Amino acid sequence: MTTLPDAAAPESAMPQERTRSWGEIAVALARQLARGDFRRGDLADLRRMDLDGPEPAVFWRLMAQYDLLDRGPMLENKWKLILHGIALMTPTAGDNSGSGSGDANARSAHEGRMPVGRALFLGKEANRANAFYSELRLNRLLTSREGMTQTLLARTFRMLAAADVSFNWQEMAWFILNDGYDAAAAENSRRRIARDYYQAERRSVQSSAESD
């Protein structure tokens, strides 16, 4: 895979102010897609977007809005996956009535208090005996790289969307942006997901034991 140009470097390779900006962009996108005044047709286009095919107009419009254009095809493809996942996991559709009175506080795909690993284990439950996202799936995801990671994440986003699960999209954006570019940062993301997953498992086991 070609190297990202400096202007397109992900979180770990950027100055601190730029690092914050990438995370803020992911969160802002999640909130924007959940707004009542975000067009239903645009949300649908992002949900059914073919990651290996042409991009809908709404993708380019959002990329331009957040100043993400002209940074190379690698970064564009990473944000394509991010937008696709956010759209799939957005539980509220936009209001296309033309009233312009969207709810800016609608629930979005982003839940800052829910780490990715914890969400994968728990799903929508506070505690559970068996993982929502199986250990086998987790192992495949965390040992995959680049193209396979994209494929597995797209499937994961659809699975989470079907169960109405949300998580910290700032964390997921870092994982996606660093995969295939910064091996150390991507490995840190994988370790964080694993730690939060197995910590959620341990707490669920303890809770079940205490309630018996």
Protein described:
With 212 residues, the chain is mostly helical. Helix content is 59%, strand content 0%. The protein contains nine helices and no strands. It has helices at residues 16-34, 40-47, 57-65, 73-89, 116-122, 135-143, 146-162, 169-178, 183-211. Helix 1 crosses helix 4 (73-89), helix 4 (73-89) runs parallel beside helix 7 and helix 5 (116-122) packs across helix 9. The radius of gyration is 17 Å and the shape is globular. The termini are far apart. 37% of the residues are buried. Residues 1-20 and 93-105 have low confidence and may be disordered.
Task: Describe the SSE topology.
Elements: H1 16-34, H2 40-47, H3 57-65, H4 73-89, H5 116-122, H6 135-143, H7 146-162, H8 169-178, H9 183-211
Helix pairs in contact: 1-4, 1-8, 2-4, 4-7, 4-8, 5-9, 6-7, 8-9
Describe the largest sheet: none
* H/E series: HHHHHHHHH
Structure class: mainly alpha
Mean pLDDT: 85
The outline comes out as: globular
Share in helix? 55-70%
Q: Provide the low-confidence segments as ranges.
A: 1-20, 93-105
Ends distance: 52 Å
Instruction: Indicate the proportion of strand residues.
Output: under 5%
Count of helical stretches: 9
Q: What is the rounded Rg?
A: 17 Å
In total, how many beta strands?
A: 0
